[in-house]
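[agent] plan:
  1. take the single chain provided in the ticket
  2. run structure prediction with default settings
  3. attach structure tokens to the ticket
  4. add a short note for the reviewer (M.T.)
[agent] executing step 1
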Amino acid sequence: MARTFADAPWCRYADDGLVHCKTETQAQAIMAALKARFAECGLEMHPDKTQIVYCQDVARKEKYPNTAFDFLGFTFRPRLVKNRKRNSLFVSFCPAVSSKALKHMRAMTRRLNYRNRTHLSLKDIARLHNPILHGWIAYYGRFYPSALYPVFRHFNMTLVAWAMRKYRRLRRHKTRASKFLEGISQRQPFLFAHWRRGMIGAFA
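[agent] step 2 finished; step 3 output follows
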């Protein structure tokens, strides 16, 4: 890349890479050159993941079949963003946590099986899960933190299920258990990492 396409910015992480091109013609030429170079090394580009994507935004309004891609747990695509100075909305091509990453995070919460670990207190769960929540917020919350709300809601609902199993008075009373957790979040907003940032989400 440095020798042959010095004017094309690019980045790589392990076996994933991105090349930023100015035109579709340039993108096709670079992809063909990379394919040939990979073949010389006994390698090949992934036939499904390798694609040319049009970074559509307020200034690039043409129509192309591919206008989104995933990279390092983020989905890059056209999104509405706010211009704080003008207090207006416009379309920008930017990242947010990907659906695949959200699915992985929910699966991790399920594997930890808090809902059935009734020997734990709420403080115990906070001690165990806060490092995980901090990691998700620090990495995925840098862009579009609101996209993480489904994960936080799923975790809150896990706490509701835990409360229904732990406390006899809350068994088979989902609404009562939801209000119980909501009250705790108001009295102890710093108990969980996402509560501290106001990302409490719904309990019902």
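[agent] step 4 note for reviewer: The chain is about 40% helix and 15% strand.
[agent] ticket updated
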